[in-house]
Amino acid sequence: MLVDALIVASFLLLVGRHPGFQQRYGGGYQTPEQAVIHAIENESESLPSYACLANPQRQLVLAVFQAYFPMEMLLNTEVVPSHFARVKDLLVPKENGLDFFQTVLAIEHIVRCRTVVISDANVEFVSLGAQCLASVTKYNGPRAYELLLKRRGAAHNMRLVRDDFLNRAIIRLCCFRGIEEDEAWAEMPNLVQELGDRETRALQVEIGQKDGLAEVPAYVPCGAAALMQAGTTNADVGVKSAVIALCRVLDEAVVSFGKVLNYKVVKLRLENLAVRASQYKAGSGPPFADLPFQLEEIGAGEVAVKVLG
Question: How far is CA 129 from CA 63, 147, 163, 171, 217, in A?
Fold first, then answer.
């Protein structure tokens, strides 16, 4: 029966990405997990494979979507502690729940990377991420998340200091950047020291401190890894400008939505900014860090960054 549930969950993740499904059955939600949850709760006739499962398997599949995040977000630490806490609350109490959840994520990751040569480092990160996520059986969500940052930093001689939230933010920035060379990791603290007080506070509070549990709302920087990697590869942008742009967005999100959106976790969609970073040419307008943008609420607890011009 678990095999049937696994097939159904993997299939629903696939169809949940289809714009037609999202509009017709998914309540207009643009993220697969939200679209599928809406369909399960309001359009059950559209999901016969789900309806055919026994009730325990249906509840297991639903819990997967309620706690879902892509494996890539675990590997690059775009996830926040509340993601781990939801896995603990929703999956750990169910028989084989945690193993089932991780298997769904692993299958999806393999499918998404089917045309890419997987490096040894990526395999190690998947294993490390799975181990740290599995530690929610022993620790609470924030502690298990802290273990992930601790082990990622330790691989590059960077010590995670408890309650030093800027230190946590720096480790996450290094993970966003995706370069597993000690020199790149050693460069990031120096870069952060060059930032202004406003940018430093944005990193410390929004990337290092807020967890979506005790400190809210936590902004999940979806696309932060793509932004940092574009800043690294595009010399007309540079890593520092990418970090400053991220800080500007976080600061504006706090001003515009911090007290308006009634969510403990808000997805901050940075993909448009990341695309502009990859395409940016010096001299074509204002410096990248100063590009004008606006924030647009696009769904329940979801805000998109739209670069203007």
Answer: 20, 10, 22, 15, 24
Question: How far is CA 247 from each of CA 39, 90, 99, 111, 207, rounded to the nearest angstrom?
Answer: 36, 32, 36, 33, 9
* pLDDT < 70: residue spans in the chain: 1
The distance of Cα 56 from the centroid of its chain, to the nearest Å, equals 28
Last residue of a domain, one of 37, 68, 99: 68
Quick one: 163 and 304 in the same domain? Answer: yes
Domain that holds residue 150: 69-155
Spatial separation of the C-alpha atoms in residues 303 and 55, rounded to whole Å: 34
Give strand pairing partners of 220. Answer: 267
Kindly state whether residues 79 and 195 are assigned to the same domain: no
CB 59, CB 93: distance < 8 Å: no
| SS3 state of residue 50 | helix
pLDDT of residue 22: 96
Strands across the sheet with 218-222, in order? Answer: 218-222, 265-269, 302-307, 293-299
Strand partners, 294: 306
Per-residue pLDDT reduced to its tens digit, 47-80:
999 999 999 999 999 999 999 999 999 999 999 9
What pLDDT is stored for residue 119 in this prediction?
A: 75
Domain total in the chain:
3
